[in-house]
Amino acid sequence: MDVYNLTTITEFILIGLSDLPEVRYPLFVIFAAIYQITLLGNGAILLAIGTEKKLRTPMYYFLANLSLLDIFCPSATVPKMLQNLLSEKQSISFVGCALQLFFLVALAGTEVFLLSVMAYDRYVAICFPLRYTLIMTKWLCVQLTAGTWAAGFLNSLLHTVFTFRLSFCKSNRVNQYYCDIPPVVALSCSSTYVAEMLVLVVGGVLGISAFLITGISYIYIISTILKIRSAEGKRKAFSTCASHLLVVCLFYGTTIFTYIRPSSSHHSPARDRLISMLYGVITPMLNPIIYSLRNTEVKGALRKVLCHKTCFTK
Q1: Are the C-beta atoms of residues 90 and 18 closer than 8 Å to each other?
Q2: I want to staple 84 with a disulfide (CB 3.0 to 4.6 A). Which of 24, 90, 223, 276 is the partner?
Q3: Keywords on this record (predicted)?
């Protein structure tokens, strides 16, 4: 469906996997299951942190925020994607598309900033253990967390405004299963220079800054751990940041693979979109698994919650 000059677009068509109809129903089952596991896993982390007093520390305060993001971020795209997998009409309203893009970019941006804050927290804990409680005060943690959410949402507001002030008269077919900046901007029939430069400059500066903070923090952390003489001391120090390091590698690895890799010439665009779908929903599902498997305190708190519920039902 093409919409030409003088016609205002009131809705977009999310192509998704419309050219792979044979996998629609199996994908619905797979993604519905992944989404449920994501909600349950991150909800369990939040419940464990909220009920266990030993977990009322800066590290777990930031982890609770990460779990919230891992609930909200897929919730911005997956319900609509599941609806479209079962529906013949794969449309989304103009306002709905703008809201979806806004929340997706805001939550993803907030997660980038939060991961850098979590890396700084681990840097202080390992490099300055005696001063940790003096540096990472409750007030500083609140300020850092509020700053990450504010930066993510303000950054997204800027991109959303400059994306949807463009004129759309070429087509209304979004080459993705959700509304994202590149496929929406590609539909514009007016100059996209400002919108594209904002992504490159503002997004680049903020993203690279967060990445550098995370990377430099871990350079200092690894350097400090290597200076510890005892093997047991090294193991204990590394165990405090191993889960976060895995989550950082997973997040940046999947982001680079999804957005920076070239489209494969051997696969159809639908298969590239399928890879994007998988990486977009799998990362939020794996984060609570990583923290619950590698962190003894989280595992202990989850056991207490499950035992309490089991005893209560009996």
Answers
A1: yes
A2: 90
A3: Cell membrane, G-protein coupled receptor, Membrane, Olfaction, Receptor, Sensory transduction, Transducer, Transmembrane, Transmembrane helix
